[in-house]
Amino acid sequence: MPHISRRELKTDEFRQTLAHSAELLGRHSGLIWRTAAVVLILALAGLLWRWYTARQQARADAELERALETFEAAVGNAPAAPGQMHFATAQEKYIAAEQQFGQIARQYPWTRPGELARYYAAVALERLGKNQDAANWLEPMTHSRKDPLAGLARFELAHIEEARGHGDRAVALLRDLLDHPSPLVPRALVLLALGDHYRQSNPAEAARYYRQVQSEFSGTSVAEQARQRLELLGQS
User: Fold this and answer.
1) Residue 74: other Cβ atoms inside 10 A
2) Is 129 left (phi over 0), alpha (psi -120 to 50) or beta?
């Protein structure tokens, strides 16, 4: 920074400049303080929001882990590891799991654990035979093109729609997964599911999908499943 000499400080011009600057500062000091206050408030709000969301995320993670323990608990006479949850019947287990997942999904809807809880609540309901309730959980999740979890929701919803007798809807969801792949849903499983859909109504179309699985995924367990299905169709 250039040095200002004592001689320059004594000039009228410099004194006038300082006076003008002081006048401007005084005239706008209220605005400056208000602006500073707003900036400070916004900064504090940002910090509080990050603290709140981090805390919510930690709580949601912990609750989701407990719900998954319920979902994977042993049933009936199955041996349970020390400390592992145990239920007399699968129905009791999935009722308890759905309640836990549903609460997490409603309490933490914008967190990743909340989204995963929505998916698992649907799976638990599907295993309880409550397909409409399961579809209600999944449908909002299928709209995204960017979230990999949306692809998983489409695949599960296709399975549910097939069980409900809505074959056309199931096929549309599965073909959409072929056009817009999800890293969470292997292409081989989508092709296999399409083959299963046509197995009764159009065996030739089913065989086409099974052979496509064999061709694209030769040497895998899914290709072996496709071969077995072709044998059942008499088209091995």
Assistant:
1) 14
2) left
